[in-house]
Design brief:
This protein is 33% helix and 28% strand. By secondary structure, the protein is an alpha+beta fold. The chain starts with a helix and ends in an 11-residue tail after the last strand.
């Protein structure tokens, strides 16, 4: 919770809510892919190209879970969960998955675990199988 407390202090928001988000290292966009975007290729073709260019890189990507702080008024009431006096925002489906779980830390950042100790967030990165 120290990482979360640091973000809360840094944000300086009167009624804060913590949302967990993903962060990874930036990727270089291949020039060919950038040209396809600018030329107006269809979404389907762009998806196929993206899978072609990024599949190997994406699946080896390590995502860190980080605390983002938002004003309370920006978060729907059914998404709020209080943990040790701090309001967090989780979609109801995530709330069900983490009921009885813990917010832990690792070398890569925060880790949200379910009651059995399985990692709920961040997820393992996998792309769908799509022919390019």
């Amino acid at each position: 919770m120290q990482r979360v407390q640091r973000e809360l202090e840094r944000a300086g928001i009167a009624q804060p809510v913590v949302g967990l988000g993903y962060m990874s290292a930036p990727r270089q966009t291949p020039a060919e892919f950038a040209r396809a975007i600018v030329s107006g290729e269809s979404d389907e073709r762009l998806q196929a190209r993206a899978l072609q260019f990024y599949r190997e890189d994406f699946e080896s990507t390590v995502c860190s879970l980080v605390a983002n702080v938002y004003p309370r008024d920006d978060v729907p009431a059914d998404c709020l969960v209080e943990v040790q006096g701090v309001l967090f925002s989780f979609a109801p489906a995530v709330q069900r998955a983490i009921d009885g779980g813990v917010l832990d830390t690792s070398d890569q950042g925060l880790v949200l675990k379910d009651k059995a100790g399985g990692t709920v967030m961040p997820p393992t990165m996998r792309l769908p199988d799509v022919d390019a």
